[in-house]
# Entry
Amino acid sequence: AQTVTQSQPEMSVQEAETVTLSCTYDTSENNYYLFWYKQPPSRQMILVIRQEAYKQQNATENRFSVNFQKAAKSFSLKISDSQLGDTAMYFCAFTQSYNTDKLIFGTGTRLQVFP
Amino acid sequence: SAVISQKPSRDICQRGTSLTIQCQVDSQVTMMFWYRQQPGQSLTLIATANQGSEATYESGFVIDKFPISRPNLTFSTLTVSNMSPEDSSIYLCSVLTGGLGQPQHFGDGTRLSIL
# Structure
């Protein structure tokens, strides 16, 4: 069965600095998709970034980028120039490329950005 | 992306009662899902809501406790039946609008507290 592990329950960073959130996963599949979602205190789940496993290039979205290491089954999120609005829970998620696109979530990392 | 309206946003209920949560999407979607997020925890998939047929439940969730309807491609309901304090959670609806590997988009969630 696929699993997603986030080993950092809490992280903190100063405004304008860079922080990296870790995520590892376990699967026997070769094709799959990985996501980072953000959940601010308002509790809405917001998509941050998406990575396709068959693409070597790391995905980027403005200040957010990933370091995808397929062989190591690692999918970390880097947030550059951190802003106060980045304070939230961050969830790493996995879905296989077939079947029902069922999302499997990690346990989350609580990120606090300090001024 | 689709606009998802989830109602109610929060409720406080007495044990033994039932509550129905609604999820309305502003466009037709291929798939709809219901998740539970217990306090301080990650998201766990309850079921996939199938249009015109019975929902597909994940291990640990049963239809008698969480009946789900999906009468059309834009609307679904989740009922939490015979509630106990252990059912106090955030319940989230999500939708899939694209093909394989596309991200799910989430409603704002329903915060449910059972007294």
